[in-house]
Fold this protein.
Amino acid sequence: MKASPKTYLSIFSMVLLLIFSCKTASSQSFEPLSIPKLEAAQEHFLETAITNRRFKHADLQPLISKHGDSFQLEKLGESIEGRSVTSLDWGNGKTKVMLWSQMHGNESTATMSLFDLFNFLKASGDEYDPIRALLKNELSIKFIPMINPDGAEAFKRRNALDIDLNRDAISQISPEAQILKNARDNFEPEFGFNLHDQQIYYNVHNTPKQATISVLAPAYNEATEINDVRKRAMQTIAGMNEVLQQLIPGQVGKYDDEFEPRAFGDNIQKWGTSTILIESGGYTNDPEKQYIRKINFMIILNALQQIATKGYEQYTTEQYFAIGDNDLQLVDLLLNEVSIPVAGKSYPIDLAIRRRDVTSGASYYMASTVEDLGDMQVYFGMETLDATGLNYTPGKVYESTFESIDQINATKAMDLLKEGYMAVKVKNTAKNTLHQLPINVLSPNTKISSAWMTGSTPNFFLSKDGVLKFAVINGYLINLESPKNQELKQRVL
């Protein structure tokens, strides 16, 4: 008996449904990479050509070129100063994902992790082949590792016009902003990852825990409504947070979602791309953010797998909102109740001190200020000293001048500190020369004060019954009775 056309159509539809169902089940049931597997992958595929945060556009070009056999490279345009902005495309799936980094030139942590990810995606013949095949078949990914190469050259936030690119999404005054907008419009990604660094002073609200990673699914309107586009971003972040809480428990913050009409994240969300902001903060003993680089690799790879399998659908917006809020309550050094004499009386005053790094060539030094003083109970110190009973004591400049900085070592500097000297002078050492001595080093005509007020560089001693107990040198606390090795990043003043 000959089957009717209607029967054939019914059979064909069932076959298609079966194929689709099998494919969906296959991707949905794909076993996520475990934390140890994610860590091992990053360590194995680490891009060893980048070892610190202060790399430049020229450093990335050979690294981009070496991936030309596995990625499709495209020059998207040039910066104000003529540096190229390049994208690397990978995968042939129907779900499009775009990741962009270093919109701010000195926010380079995620950029490092992207080059680790390039090495991972390019490789083959190992235990990670199944996830590579999944991502390649399900996703088409566009990576833009450095949007602001001119800012990266000077290791500063803004571009060569001194414009914050993240406030140029609408006017698009800057060519770099135009490049990013055109890339989004031409590619039309379903998901976008906006990769940044934040101050190390962010903490999880009302806790002393540093916000090592902060996240946000930006609002697309002033009412901060949740549509399907923003909901997908929230769900993906909730899935990433599951990984993060195993790596850095309690150290994940969530930004306030107040709508910023000029920002790229908010507008890309508005334009229909589920946008996920990742901000890399600080982590103990990780000044070059190499551990945070690893975390970025792990959560980005996890998120790509979520997107490929639609695994994010198992998470809820409630889980997203349960992530602790970001706050800005951390300081480098908190001195509680220092006895400071003013007008013949002593007052117990808390001092909150922050140190910022200042670029100097290929390296940097620290410049400290007294951020605030008085009652500082709302702050948390990454280092805290109960200074009850300790008296502010001014420091002196050593009377003799050294010929060069080479005549002073750490031991000599400590001996001088114990005698009440907070600074020495040198003749034949250039101003701004970097050093790690636990004392201020001055060029011959430089003056220095023993300051403690807001906005000043904190340099003074803490004493008890006339005996010096601690030195505060450029915002670093040094225990004179039990000194320890500290990596002070200082310069000749």
